[in-house]
Amino acid sequence: MANKIFVDACLGKETPYTPVWMMRQAGRYLPEYMKVRAEAGNFLNLCHDPKKACEVTLQPMDIVGVDAAILFSDILVIPDEMGMDLSFVKGEGPKFSDPITCEADIDRLIGGDEAASKLTYVFDTIKLIKQELAEDKALIGFTGAPWTLATYMIEGQGTKTYNICKKMMYSNPALLHKILAKVTEVIKLYMEKQIDAGIDVVQIFDSWAAAIEPSMYDEFSWKYMVEICDHLKAKYPNTPIIMFPKGIPTFLDKVYGNFDVFGVDWATPMELAKEKLGEKYVLQGNMEPCRLYSQEETTKSVDDIQKVMGTSRHIFNLGHGILPDVPVANAIHFVSECQRISKK
Amino acid sequence: MANKIFVDACLGKETPYTPVWMMRQAGRYLPEYMKVRAEAGNFLNLCHDPKKACEVTLQPMDIVGVDAAILFSDILVIPDEMGMDLSFVKGEGPKFSDPITCEADIDRLIGGDEAASKLTYVFDTIKLIKQELAEDKALIGFTGAPWTLATYMIEGQGTKTYNICKKMMYSNPALLHKILAKVTEVIKLYMEKQIDAGIDVVQIFDSWAAAIEPSMYDEFSWKYMVEICDHLKAKYPNTPIIMFPKGIPTFLDKVYGNFDVFGVDWATPMELAKEKLGEKYVLQGNMEPCRLYSQEETTKSVDDIQKVMGTSRHIFNLGHGILPDVPVANAIHFVSECQRISKK
Fold first, then answer.
1. Which residue of B has its CA nearest to A209?
2. How far is A205 from A223, CA to CA, in rounded Å?
3. Which of A55, A145, B193, B335 has the smallest set of CB atoms within 10 Å of its CB?
4. Is the pLDDT of residue B2 over 80?
5. Contact criterion met (CB < 8 Å) for A170 and B214
6. What's the angle, vertex CA A304, arms to CA A300 and CA A307, rounded to 5?
7. What is the chain B residue with the closest CA to A92?
């Protein structure tokens, strides 16, 4: 079996160069993706169709040349299968028609294995991808963090202010904890099943980490993410876990837990992340995605990151998802520059 | 003339207690504000009507008991008077019909004193407020930072990704600098005229500071803000200046400039701000605005902040604007707790 350079890098092993992938690499900047998405009719159909989801997952491997594929799916398939009615309204993003407001709403949600088992289209997608993915490339599976999922389940949609969930946080924290605990149980089983289906690496996205004030973050988000890590590591000690809490640069020294890689967002200087976390965890990141608008600025940034990180205990990535209007040639340039500049 | 405790606190002088105000204190959580706004027809009419703008500016003084008033206006009146056509679309926020895309667009903008002189309704509002404001209360005038204003002028509206301005930043930085320089000149004169009309303190809001990656922040935002400070301090050395760049916690040690108060957002721990900046600047902030949903959580937070800051070189505030659905009683509770807990 061929060595997967990406998995080796996650585990802190020496690799011939620093591997690279991009958040949202299977996405709208690729005309090939837009074509499949148009065929699917809408975004959710695409998530539900293993053949098409497999196809878009694999597109950036050949086109852009990244070292790992990331499962094409959406973080909100979990609450959807827990019985909340997910839809994507054009131009407005995801919507749940019946947001959670009380204990009875939580009790009505489908939990545990019953919910996780409904996500068969995800596991089928993983199996298809693994049949086609080159042996030396890795497949990343993922989940949203309980807090990030809860924000949508409580607000009913994306939010700028998070005022409904934060009202709950400060005036009825027990209710929020009850939601988080129920979601956490589903995530544990969902990620087990993703691993069983064939993913090589787990990434947990806490996209809305920055919505919680620093002194409350552990209580309402991080400890649940760590609980998921502990659960998975007990059963699958060799499957690397990447944690990506976006926007917690002021308390990196409080980060703890049994995982392998810490994803650094673009607003957190790599020097700071290395100083606070570089000994404990492999670091992933963190080029500002808008640098991709200029090939010159991309090279400059890759070079700067490389100077900070050296040639080990690092995975190149963007510090947030690639934007739809980035020229494909510039994405290719980023990936090849990462591989060239870090070559030993 | 009575001493203004708020001005004293800005200058680092001893005060009988730590003064307090709230960002967006003249706002939608107050039924009295909603009434005047309804009479005005829309938000922009309210900004243009000195009598009504004066009325809403003064409302929180009596109702909530804050130690300073902040001029009711909008940061976007500047680009509006520079010749861009500002409108507020219900539910969507501010819009400019012709965003800036090239040098000719910038050349067409009205600049310098000609633009600043058109903001007479703001100066008239200030004069009215000063006639009615108690002598021991201060009036804060304000402006958006050049970068924050430029984001709207380039994107044509609010944005989640800032991709149009950041494309300009990375692929045509000279064009962005040309916009920033032109806006900076208008702001200097606008703030001079606000001071001449009677404001006691200046606050510069860089609401979208966090949109710029740390290594680029000085070049595209902070240095222009400092240029404004230098200009104002040369003419008005006794007028305190508050800088509020939201979301730059990772490089507080690089903050410099001739101003008096640094506004701390809620995501930046007060301990960190005190350690990095507390000797050089008075600090303002930084309760998480959603704590206002619970009186108990409010008291806890005020107490925590007070323990870090002690009884000098501090001004109480929220770490961001008060939200529309906060009960007025809770805002009153916040203000009185700040004044009670910090009393000497």
1. B267
2. 14
3. B193
4. no
5. no
6. 140
7. B92
Measured between CB atoms, which of A167, A214, A267 is closest to B290? A167
For residue B199, the one-letter residue type is I
Q: Is A17 a catalytic residue?
A: no
What are the tokens at A242? 């990447």
Q: Are A246 and A265 in contact (CB under 8 A)?
A: yes
Residue B245 is inside which H or E element, if any? Answer: strand B241-245
Residue B19, amino acid: P
Element at B142 (helix H, strand E): strand B138-144
Note if the pTM is more than 0.95.
yes
- Tell me B265's DSSP state: P
Buried b / exposed e over B89-114, threshold 16 CB at 10 Å, is eeeeebbbeebbeeeebbeebbbeee
Token pair belonging to A25: 């690499």
The three-class DSSP label of residue B310 is coil
CB-defined contacts A:B, below 8 A: 74
Q: Which of B249, B251, B294 sits opposite A171 (nearest CB)?
A: B294
Q: What is the pLDDT of residues B73-98, one digit of tens each?
A: 999 999 999 999 999 988 889 999 99
d(CA B290, CA A166): 6
CA distance B272 to chain A (A): 8
A34-46 mean pLDDT = 95
User: A291 and A313 in contact (C-beta within 8 Å)?
Assistant: no
Q: Do A163 and B325 touch (CB under 8 A)?
A: yes
Q: Which residues of B130-169 are buried (b: 16+ CB within 10 A; e: fewer)?
A: beebeeebbbbbbbbbbbbbbbbbbbbeebebbbbbbbbb
Residues paired with residue A139 on neighbouring β-strands, in sequence order:
A69
Chain B CB contacts of A214 below 8 Å: 267, 269
Residue ranges and CATH numbers for the domains of chain A are 5-341 (3.20.20.210)
Residues of A in CB contact (< 8 Å) with B are 161-163, 166-167, 169-171, 210, 213-215, 247, 249-251, 266-269, 272, 288, 290-291, 293-294, 297, 304, 323, 325
ipTM of predicted assembly, 2 dp: 0.95
Which residues on chain A are in Cβ contact (under 8 Å) with B169?
Answer: 290
Q: Mark whether A24 is an active-site residue.
A: yes
pLDDT category, B1, cuts 50, 70, 90? low
CB contact under 8 A, A167 and B213: no
CA distances from B155 to A227, B172, B326 (A): 42, 15, 31
- Report chain B residues whose CB lies below 8 A from the CB of A291: 170
